[in-house]
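Entry 14. Structure prediction run on the chain below.
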Amino acid sequence: MGDAPGAEALVNQTSLKYTSTRSIFTFNVVNKVQMTVEFLSPVYPDDLRRQSVTSSYINVSVKSIDGKTHSVQIYSDVSGEWASGDNGAIIQWESASNDVVRYHKFYRQDQQPFTESNEVASWGNWYWATGDLHGVSYQIGSDTDVRSQFLNKGSLTGEIDTNFRAVRDRWPVFGLARDLGFVAGTAKSTLFTIGFAQEDAINFQGKEYNPRSVPSLWRAYFNEKDLVTFFYNDFDYATHYANDLDLRIVTDSEEAVGPHYATITTLAVRQVFGALSFTNTEDSPLVFLKEISSNSDIQTVDVIFPALPIFLYLNPDLIKWTLEPLLENGQHHYPNNWAQHDLGTFPNAVGHPKGDDEPMPLEECGNMVVMMLAYAKRKHDDQYLADNWELLEQWAGYLIQDAKIPANQLSTDDFAGHLANQTNLAIKGIIALKAMSEIANMTGHGEDASNYTKIAREYLDFWKEHGIDRKNNPPRTMLQYDSPGTYGRTTHTHKPAPNPLSLKKRTKKEDVMLTWTVIIRPPVQRLLGQGAGPRLHPAGHL
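Output returned:
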């Protein structure tokens, strides 16, 4: 999307639009042609077959804007840098055509499964493709050779450089070009796809004694050769589905809050789904989450927790599929009596058999309890809770021990360091204890349910007495108990239905945005008497 080497700056970007699934750039080319480049990353929350395909579309369309016809050729390439984060690594490639799709396949020659270099996978195959149509040409070679060929001739030679070499050795690129012929006021377009295929995606320590390789989910539906052609030929369906999903998210968000909220929710979709790896089998899918933009932890509980609202909104099964690796590993390999923070460093979900994960015990116990209840309520799946009762009861024991007066520990804001008596952590634990009351009732443990409710009420009374700065106008929560002049945002009260303090019937608005005002505060007041709750500002989350 930058200037060609040695070219004048003749292209001006005139607009950028984005949706939940697209980024659309519009360019003015020397006041003669308008070029629109659409990047589409489909999201299929209820279609595992399509969601399993790790690929994106780039659709380029052009039309004349000066009333004349123009001869237009489109060129695009990707470089060997996609294949490895180590520019000294040797890469290999090939070019072929299948089912009217021309593709370049390239990959690291020395495949290193379950290894990353500079956060780029060191195993798997990349596919850069376009339609094998009239006017298409292709070439693999050094960046200067291939790009100069197109600049000088408007097409590529079809030559395939067979000198496999390091990424930085004369920088191999994989070029595709299309001659659109003469273009007038009616737009013409050409489509490219970029995809990544790994046979095995995750190294996972489950219930077995040794870790196992978990296959990519696409293998349940495709062979690798057909994966590329299926995705390319599915563009019309992908466009239709993306239009519907984009509209649904905008409409529901605007109905719930307004256009500014829609701006936020549309930004969130690709951020969440881009971090997910869909694996295992059609009958037993597992979803692994990479903690991006930080330290690459895998299955971080307090990173899954902020994704809970979009999972509930789009497909609650995503919650179960994402929590299952944590539950399986935790039942067999985690020694502590609280919920673990993560399963290791992506893509190695081997857990922490020594219990030496990042210490967020109250944070993660509360997160797991609330997420599991949210899934079970939405799916009417009491058996899910019954099957995991032993772990849930264990975590509840820790909550009883620590939620009233939290020990010195981290919260999800781990950059702030350890801190004791955090009001935000305490209210999370209190909410989770009331959630355990609901879970106990749903699984036939009535006596435990009464006990959890009793403890939650007692702890909430204490929290109100020691956690609220009543001298402030208006009163506000303190960062720590009995620390007037401090404050902290009680983010743990701003979470999606079903709210464990009431589990009342949801409205459509509450499905999209649930706030302290709508969901949490009234049930707290009912527990302790009307007007007893702290005065907090609403804050919506999807």
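The chain has a mean pLDDT of 90.
Filed with the rest of this week's runs.
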